[in-house]
Amino acid sequence: MSSVADTGISVAVDQNEYLAEGARTVDAIVTVEITEALTVAVPQQERVEILIIDCSGSMGSGDKFAGARRATLAALDVLPDGTRFAIVEGTDKAKVVFPENGATVAADARSRAAARRTLDTLHPHGGTAIGTWLGLSRKIAEQYPNAMVHAILLTDGRNEHEKPERLAREIRSSEGVFTCDCRGVGGAGNDWEAEDLRSIASALHGTADLVRTPDLLADDFAAMMKVSMSKAIPELTMRVWTPQSDRVAFVKQVAPTIEDLTGRRTEVSAQVGEYPLGSWGAEDRDYHVQIQVQPAPAGSEKLAARISVVAGTELIGQGLVKAVWTTDTDKSAQISRRVAHYTGQAELAQAVQEGLAARKQGDNATATAKLQRALQLANESGNQATAKLLGAVVEVDARTGTVRLRASIDLDDERALDLRSGTTARVRKGEATARVRKEEGA
């Protein structure tokens, strides 16, 4: 464990460093914690907020468009004066509707009142092309290269007015340029795809969720804006060094949500890779790092990885992952409880998503098996939030314990389960000393 409390960051490594002879795999949970001491010390950066509102024709049903207006104003109400913002109208095109010059404007009483008047003139029309919304937002962000730029994207419809390749391309182009939280409006007739929102939020270090009814949008937008304002550090990077003979198998964020960072590696040298961690406030996150090492004789010890946390070019925290080979099976047969727990949480998320995908394809047998496994993992790990969401999609026979798909599944329940399946139950650092046998928890 490495702790630099006086600088406001700690990097803690939890692992069982003992390996059996011939073993190659080293697992560790790395907890990065940022305290207010660091966020307060960081110089304030210019901030830009982009509110992307679906104005397609389908938003005209019910109270959706009025709810979107209220939500936009609620977000602006919690925006500190001086923060620059823009409102983007999203249809099968994208247009900055406020301010009129297409750039951004500083938040104050006058600009908020003007934004309200502009919102009152908008009306639902046209189609949905989310990639164009991201593209325009990126152009806005690129005007402020030294600013922290965050977007909120709201939609109610399927991305049907552009090819999937266009959306994928715009997501890739926007990585590292701005962050984005995504929301889909719930209710009948709203046919947005959870996978689209998850893909955007994952790549752009944001969140994706369902808001069941339009009257809940205002509180949700205000909450997202407050979280955005709490981020003081624009970007942290995890730098992983391994010996020449070893390699990184994967790096995954495992709490508070699961995000696979392996494919986002940037090669610094043959032995060093960097993984983007996004913007930070005062918070802590857990990462599962797995290293494949060259086996060594019993009694050998080596440094398997050096985990560094970097802000810009400055090293601000570091932790070490070790490997010790032994013939003592009591030592090598143990696994850190936190490694075991988060391995199960990753399996849980995968089982949920594969089960829902199978159901969508009409493969109910596979869907049932996957979701049954997911329910088992959720209950075993204490992830009651996911277990409750699963309860809306599957039912358990009280007599036999058999799990089966519900005959009727509400689309919003399915979407909520899909989008929240990657939210994990935490195992805190204080619980790390508990151990379970590898064959039981690995």
UniProtKB/TrEMBL annotation:
It comes from Nocardia acididurans. Residues 50-233 form the VWFA domain. It holds the Pfam family VWA_3_C. InterPro entries: VWA_3_C (IPR041176), VWF_A (IPR002035), vWFA_dom_sf (IPR036465). This is VWA domain-containing protein.
